[in-house]
Amino acid sequence: MKLGLNLSFAAKRWQDPEELAELCAGFGVHYWQFNLDFIDPWWPEEMRNRLANAYRDAFGKKGLSFESLFNGMAAYSYPQFLAHSREVRDAIQTYHERAIDVAMEVGAKHLGIALGGMTHRDAYDPLRRRAIYEETVERLKKLAAYGARKGLQSIQIEPTPLFTEFPNSIESSLELMHDLENVSEIPVQIFLDWGHMLCKPFMGKQADMELWIRELKSYIGDMHLQQTDGLWDRHWDFRHEEDGIVTPEIIKGVLHNTGTEDSVQYLELSFAFEDTDENVYEGVKYSVDKLRDIFEE
Amino acid sequence: MKLGLNLSFAAKRWQDPEELAELCAGFGVHYWQFNLDFIDPWWPEEMRNRLANAYRDAFGKKGLSFESLFNGMAAYSYPQFLAHSREVRDAIQTYHERAIDVAMEVGAKHLGIALGGMTHRDAYDPLRRRAIYEETVERLKKLAAYGARKGLQSIQIEPTPLFTEFPNSIESSLELMHDLENVSEIPVQIFLDWGHMLCKPFMGKQADMELWIRELKSYIGDMHLQQTDGLWDRHWDFRHEEDGIVTPEIIKGVLHNTGTEDSVQYLELSFAFEDTDENVYEGVKYSVDKLRDIFEE
Asked: How far is CA A125 from the centre of its chain?
């Protein structure tokens, strides 16, 4: 099994490429996912590329590389592709093309994204919801074509546990995959997050990781790993032994039973902004050490 | 006393200007603070201005206006002025000029910001920390000059409860104010957040709102109001009756004792992304109703 680490934990805290690469090398993890909280795709192209190259080179010197790039907290704060305003959605198309440019410059082959969020009225209006869905399918085709030209290998869409976002169920994930299959220039896949799928108040009977993987099997890309109590989208580290429901045994069992051991499991941890760097480091180290034992058995 | 509401609670959930203005008019609050999670300053200028005007106009039709603009979750995800890379700091200067442009287009007179966060090594290296501080003072002077040209009336800096950010204490807030006094073209003030100031594990003996206001008195701008347990920067709504330490009586007492009744108290509430629109609405409504009674006595 493949254990990876998303840079979410390090945003703001360890920004200097050399300092970050040194810290990351100490974790002994082989798969790395870059995060757009380090580089805003809107930043001017030349400095953005220099910065992206600096992260790639600093990691390279430590024998590490970025397989993937996932959007971060800043990106998730905006409505993105599901925005109410068409002009916003147009700007977001450009934003994602620029995100692919960042991915290329850090050396990542895969782009993972959440599609965004709808304004309340659009989400509850079946016609508006349908129109935004159909437009998003077209936008993803265009984005895949852009990615193909640049050398991207896949776009991976993350379902979230909210009615005002999509895909938010097995059915809506399958529909999106069917609508993009054979018509996108590079594969568009589903990026599962353990904590989103196990969120019982939102997912109900579908709060079952093995069910999601079995139903979406051929469309499964990589995954986000986090500790959670199944009540909220926690992105806890694995020191939550008592209230956490994601055990190494369950991870191993699900991946084995579904034959998805080749999907990279990127730990995506969130800490309070006001948490100390020391506590964040300890949380990441503990989680990685605990999981690595199981992954390398 | 002046009760206000920051649009933080509505980001993504209620984006359509008309829908948002209708919702907001129902709260019966007179002071409104726009939030950059609705408009990314990097978006193309023309569409960004049209969108900003649409929010201003929709609120105007309901008899509401934005006094102030504060940066939101997306902005706080980046290191901003305290970034390690000079090129990033240069881009961030542009970002804040564009934020002032957004403020002007929504009709806001005041810009509130947190300055950002340092990479671990810079924060713990006294020379680097000093250099970044001094550069930030120069950048704020330039930003104030830009604001003056555009018609902005003040820039208000929010202290946060973190050693890796500044200002993070009464002393560092006072130093920043002294260094900008009489040299900035528009007033630069301190924007206090009740929850940041009352964060005991970080503020220690300075976890005392009245102390902060007395020490910073002449530099005090507006404030952010939130419910908190004093352990983390919660930004809870006021349904947290049992564990919340910010009572209407305390708010009233502190503002009265310090003669700061004219500072607008903008409620800045944060909800989990996966929370339902219904629960968010109820939390805001409950908080506003509870506080309004006290504010209007």
From this structure: 28
